[in-house]
Amino acid sequence: MGASEQPEREFEAASASELSTHSAVTQSVVEQSFWQAFIQKIEVEGHDPTRKSNPDLDPVPPEARVWNWWNYVSYWISDNFSPTGWRKAASMISLGMSWRLALLNIAIAEIICGIVITVNGFIGAKYNISFTIQSRASFGYYLSYGMVFMRMVVGMFWYGVSTYAGAECVRTMIYAIWPSFRNVANQLPTSAGINTQLMTAYVIYFASVLPLHYVGVGRLRFLFTVKAITTPLIGFGIMGWTIKNASIGSQSLWNEGNTKHGSELGWVFMTGVFSNISGWATLAVNSPDFTRYAISPKHTYAMAIALPATATLIAFFGVVCAAGSTVLFGELLWDPLVFVDNWTSKGGRAAAFFCGLGFYLAQACTNISANSISAANDLNCMFPRFVNVRRGQYIVAFIGAWAFVPWNILTSTTSFLSFMNGYAIWLAPMCGVMVADFYCVHHRRYHTFELYNKDGIYRYNRLGVNWNAAAAFTIGWVPLLPGFMTSVNANIVVGAGADHLFSLGYFYGFGAAFATYWALESIFKHEATQLVHAVYPDDENYVMPNYHEELIEFYNASGLKDFEVLQHV
Questions:
Q1: Which range (26-35, 67-76, 390-399, 496-505) has the least confidence?
Q2: 487-491 long-range contacts, Cβ below 8 Å, gap at least 24?
Q3: What CATH number does domain 62-557 carry, 3.20.20.140, 1.10.10.1590, 1.10.4160.10, 2.40.10.10?
Q4: Which distant-in-sequence residues (6+ apart) come within 8 Å of 19 by Cβ?
Q5: 403 closest CA partner among 145, 169, 163
Q6: Which residues on neighbouring strands pair with residue 53, listed in sequence order?
């Protein structure tokens, strides 16, 4: 009996084992099928795995190129007419300049920014590509991802800082509607770095701008137009009220001169220029993100005038109202929101509300145009399979506004703010390399489709790194590092020469990188990237070659001077 039961038990054990194995395999298949279905569900529609691109990363199609010259003018009115733009002169005056010299400083810096932004933006308008794709032509296919990541971090950081500024606008509106809100007791600990009033306004602002991130980039031009009409009216209104109610001509601010003199004033002036340029350093790099939507490149030229004109005008508004605030309110007020918070009568509160609303719209537009979309484009480039610009904006919003905890940065971390303000020492050489590459090295001739080819001519070598660009970029920022360290930590002492060089930061960074890259490319040439004729995204009869022989034939037919077989092919 025991002998006959043994085979049966072995058979039952084997059956149970097979059943268990079959069950595990079935469960694995189910889990794999679920995971595959989930991945397919979150993939961006139209994603091309071969080119690692998607519709938002591809060149803008003709039907989506709808921005005209007025849209770019309103874009810069939108960016400049904000509380930050209003306060610009305050920083210059605090350095030791008179208000007249401060305005001149701002005007010079903004003219330089306007030229650089327009010159670099031409590339996006000509080839309808974003910065993320443009950077591949100069830095190489894979090194460009490092440049993209650097800019993405900056965009996320400033998104959070701008959200905090937007919350201040909301708080002004709440003060105007419900004056009792001023007396709301703080329920948050001191360590939080923010009080209940401002946190309430912060949440309201953050939630209210989220729907704007859903709007396509092409449609944002209408929002900029609305803001371009309303915010200048608010600025003229506040200034007119100030002039009417205060005899500003007799005030100290209006009449006081420079508090620094001689060479010291000269270096202070250059520090101010660098500071003002740094505010636009990110946009100087990523201007193609918006110019790619231009009807034609000539429509972007208006930016060179619109940027310095509007920036100087809004700074002048700030000077006039600050001069009058000492008479009207007994203190010097550079912040327009604090200024209108003093309008406590019934009519005054109504005016304060609409001013707060206008600045709210200004801050929202600025944050979207300068930070949100730019950083979203970077995420789109790094993860094209799962992230488009719309999804990227929401990721940027939550990371920038909450993970970076901007209220703690603004209230307690002066050195970190100095670090981010000095970030231009990396952005300047980045921009210098790209501008030199397009105008001087490649003579405005790019091959649009090769920019999307990881094994194409812009890979340069196996690593996908253009060492000429890497060297020029490094030369552009390393000498500025000692002065930068001093600006972040006053306990670090370096020579006066290093401090003075840092005061020339953007000029040196851009210029040194530009000249070095041009020189290196003249000596160590990459003939494979030198086209006789540019290849634009609208060029017809283009077929992406799939084999090595076809690649050589195609390059020769495209007009390359001297095709060289790349090592990685």
A1: 26-35
A2: 487/418, 487/421, 487/422, 488/415, 488/418, 488/419, 488/422, 489/415
A3: 1.10.4160.10
A4: none
A5: 163
A6: 48
* CA gap 203, 170 in Å, rounded: 10
| Distance, CA of 95 to CA of 99 (rounded, Å) | 11
Cα separation of 304 and 189, whole Å?
A: 47
Place of tokens 């920022």: 477
Dump pLDDT digits (tens) for 5-31.
565 555 455 555 555 555 555 555 555
* Cα–Cα distance, 52 to 136 (Å, whole number): 13
Rounded to a whole number of angstroms, the CA Rg of the chain reads: 28
Given the structure tokens 């005008």, which residue do they identify?
313
pLDDT (tens digit per residue) in 406-434: 898 776 555 555 766 678 999 999 999 99
DSSP letters of 200-261? HHHHHHHHHHGGGGGS-GGGHHHHHHHHHHHHHHHHHHHHHHHHHH--GGGSHHHH---SS-
Mapping DSSP to helix (H, G, I), strand (E, B) and coil, where does residue 447 land?
Answer: strand
| Residue range 433-449: mean pLDDT, rounded | 97
> In the chain, what are the domain boundaries?
62-557
